[in-house]
Amino acid sequence: MMRKRSRRRRLAATGRWRARKLRAPLAVVRRRAATLVGAVLLSFAALLFAIAGDWAQRHFASIAKTYTYAPLLTTPLLFATVAWFTRRWVPAAGGSGIPQVIAASGNIEGAATSPLLSLRTAVAKLALTVTVLFGGGSVGREGPTVQLAAAIMVAVHRVLRVPISAGVLIAGGAAGVAAAFNTPLAGVAFAIEELAAAYEQRVALLVMGAVVISGLVSLSLAGDYIYFGAMRDTLAIGPLLLVAPTVAVIGGGLGGLFARLVLGFGRASHRWLEGKWVRSVLLAAGCGLIVAALGVTSGGASWGTGYEATRTMVEGQGQPLWFGPVKFLATLATTLSGTPGGIFAPSLSVGAGVGNLLTPLFPSQPAGTIVLLGMVAYFVGVVRAPLTAVIILMETTASRGMILPLFATALLADATSAFVCRERLYHGLARRFAPVVRVSDDAKTPG
C-alpha cells in the first residue's frame, strides 16, 4: 500500500513538473505575441492619428485664411469646450500623455485597471487633441501617441492574459515615439531616459522588439521619409567652440523657463481650480483667446505643430525673427489651458525659432546648423533628455555630420536648464496623476 501511494505521489509530481515545463514556453509565446500584436496595432493607430491631425490643421488654416478674425471667437470657445469635456469626463486625458505613462509605471498593480491607460481615455485623448489642432492649438501628436501606445499594449496583454510589467508600458511608450516620428533609435533612447527608471535586460529586449516592429510597420505604410527635411551642413571645431555654448545657454535657459512656468503654474492653480470647473473653463477660454490673437497677428505662423515652419528653417530658408518668441507664447498658453496635447513637436518648432533668431550672430555659418542647435538646446531645456533629443534630430534631419555639435550643445543645455528648473517637467507633471493610479488600485481591492 505504501509503495502504491509513493508511486502515485511520484507520478503526480512528475505530471506537475511536465505541466510547468509546457506552460513556460507557452507563456513566452504569449508574451511575444502580445508584443507583436500591440506594436502592429499601435503603428496603425499612430498613422491614423497623424492623418487626422494633419487634416485638422489644413482645414483650420483654410478657414482662418478665408475668415481672418474668426479664430478670435472659435478658438477660445473650442478650448473652453475641450477643457470642460476633459475635466468632466476624461480627466486622465489632459496634458501631454507622457506624464500619465510615467505615473502608471510607478504602480504596475494599479496601472492595468487605471483610467490613465484605458483605451477609452486614449481614444478620447486622440479625438480631443485633433479638436485642439482644429482650433489652432500649439500642440503635438507625440505625447498623446505615447499614451495611446501604452494603452494598446496594456489592452493586448490583458486580452492574451499576459502579466503586465513595467516593461510593457515602457515598450509601448517607446514604440509610440518611434511610430510618431518614424525614428526607431529615438524610441529606444526615450525609453532609457524618460520611461525606465531601472533599465533591465529583459525590458531592453522587449523595448527593442516593440520599437523595431512598430518602426517597420510605420515605414511600410508611410514610406522612408525624413520628418524635418535633410540638413547636410556641418560646423568646424573653431566656430563650434563659440556657437555651441551660446546656443546652449540661451536655448536651454528658455526651455528651462518653459518647464518652470508650467510646473509653477500647476502648483499655484491647483487649489484655485480644484472642484471649480467654471474657473477651469474660463482659464481655457482665456488661453484660447491668447492663442487666437497670436495666430491672427502672426498670419497663422504660431498655430498647430509648427512642422512646416520648422522644416523651412532646417533647410535654410528662414522665418521672421519673431517666430520663436510667438511660438513660445502660443505653446505656453496652449499647455496652461489644460487641454490634451503634446509638447514634443511645438518644442522643436520653438527651438528652431530660437536658432533662427540667433543666426544673425553667426553670419559666416550655415543657417541650418544654428537652427538645428537651437532645436536641440531648447528641446533638452524643456524635457531634459539629451540622448533622445540628439537622436531624434539626427533621424529626422539626416544630419549625421552634426552629431558632435549636437551632443555638445545638448549637454550644456541640460546643465543650463537644470540651473533654471531643477525638477524635470514630465516627472513633475506625473505626480499629479499618481493618485489616479492609487485610487484605481484601491478600488479593485475587496473590502
Would you give an account of this structure?
- This protein has about 450 residues and is mainly α.
- The protein has two domains: about 170 residues, Clc chloride channel; about 190 residues, Clc chloride channel.
- It is about 75% helix and about 0% strand.
- Helix 8 packs antiparallel against helix 16 and helix 10 packs parallel to helix 13.
- The longest helix is centred in the first third of the chain and has 65 residues.
Structure described in brief:
This protein has 447 residues and is mostly helical. It has 18 helices and no strands.
Tell me the series of helices and strands, N- to C-terminal.
HHHHHHHHHHHHHHHHHH
CATH first level of the largest domain:
Mainly Alpha
Determine the structural class based on helices, strands and strand pairing.
mainly alpha
Cα separation of the termini: 47 Å
Keywords for this structure?
Clc chloride channel; disordered C terminus; globular; mainly alpha; single chain; about 450 residues
Question: SSE layout and pairings?
Answer:
Elements: H1 2-66, H2 71-89, H3 98-105, H4 108-111, H5 119-134, H6 142-159, H7 166-181, H8 184-195, H9 201-222, H10 237-273, H11 277-297, H12 307-314, H13 323-336, H14 344-358, H15 367-383, H16 386-397, H17 403-420, H18 425-443
Helix pairs in contact: 1-5, 1-6, 1-7, 1-9, 2-11, 3-7, 3-18, 5-6, 6-7, 7-8, 7-9, 8-9, 8-16, 10-13, 10-14, 10-15, 10-17, 11-13, 12-14, 13-14, 14-15, 15-16, 15-17, 16-17
